[in-house]
């Protein structure tokens, strides 16, 4: 493979990973906390309903998990394409 096709494959995988992370983040913060709240309001978490929990703490926790997931996957992607820092 040429150098240009290696770069294209790397950035395509990188953008796909970013897109997946953004969809998960949007689903957790906007979907569960706002749009789907009436459907999940009957589930109790910590003395409140699940929709309120996602709006207050759940979306933040999902965002933190996504940060670590992204870092882990990008390190693996960098190694796979030979652009890692080590």
Key features of this structure:
3 helices; 80% helix
Radius of gyration: 18 Å
Largest sheet composition: 2 strands, antiparallel
Based on secondary structure, the structural category is mainly alpha
Helices, by number, come to 3
Number of domain units: 1
Shape: elongated
Q: What's the rounded overall pLDDT mean? A: 88
How does this structure look, described?
The protein has one domain (3-81). 80% of the residues lie in helices and 5% in strands. The longest helix has 33 residues, at 3-35. It is elongated. The chain has a two-stranded antiparallel sheet with strand order 1-2. Strand 1 and strand 2 (48-49) form a beta hairpin. The protein is mostly helical.
Q: What is the strand and helix layout of this fold?
A:
Elements: H1 3-35, H2 37-40, E1 44-45, E2 48-49, H3 50-81
Antiparallel strand pairs: 1-2
Helix pairs in contact: 1-3
């Amino acid at each position: 493979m040429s150098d240009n096709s290696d770069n294209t494959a790397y950035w395509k995988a990188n953008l796909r990973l970013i897109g997946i992370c953004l969809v998960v983040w949007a689903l957790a913060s906007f979907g569960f906390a706002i749009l789907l709240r009436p459907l999940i309001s009957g589930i109790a978490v910590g003395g409140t309903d699940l929709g309120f929990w996602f709006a207050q703490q759940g979306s933040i926790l999902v965002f933190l998990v996504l940060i670590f997931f992204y870092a882990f996957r990008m390190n693996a992607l960098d190694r796979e394409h030979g652009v890692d820092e080590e």
